[in-house]
Please model this.
Amino acid sequence: MVDVGMTYPNGKVALADVNVEIPNGDFVFLVGPSGAGKSTFIRLLIREQVPTTGSVRVAGRDLVRMRRRQVPALRRRIGIVFQDFRLLPSKTVAENVAFALDVTGAPRSHIRQRVPQLLSLVGLQDHAHHLPTQLSGGEQQRTAIARALVHAPTILIADEPTGNLDPVTSWEIIQLLIQINELGTTVLMATHNQEIVNAMRRRVLALEGGHLVRDEAAAAYEREY
Model:
């Protein structure tokens, strides 16, 4: 992002003069109080919105100038995981993961190969035929992560991925995200979980009132003096 500003039609300034570069392979926490601009930051990265000012480039593509018909291809290069899992309740774990490939017209042979690979990666190979209601919260989030990885994205955006999980399960999800990052995927995680950020000591981007107030390597949740 270069000189990015986002003002909504009602006059609310969501982001102002934000400059951020995230290299390939980085693991970054996005922190800040509610209303700080984190959600807008993420929406700009997946081109759900276009900034009022400035430019946004993801995987070498200029998102401001991108045509609408090019957006689906961009989103296949970005995996996204939410706090509330967003699984299809009537489909099994394997079917939820396969569905993300199915809708893009992937060959059946590729789906049959890819789905077991991903379930193995997230530790759900024995839960392939379970429905979401038969899973714990952590298992549901692992399913959502597997689904986000179906197109081998270069970037994984995790928006409060531990928000609905207990502390032990949260750490299991963080360990999985670290593993995915070590395999070469860039990870951006928005979170309010101070304990995780403080323990991890990764790069921290802190937003307040739409301004990027801190961009610090090996950092804690809050500025240390």
User: Anything to note?
Assistant: Residues 24-50+68-205+212-216 form a domain with the Rossmann fold fold (CATH 3.40.50.300). The CA atoms of residues 56 and 62 lie 6 Å apart.
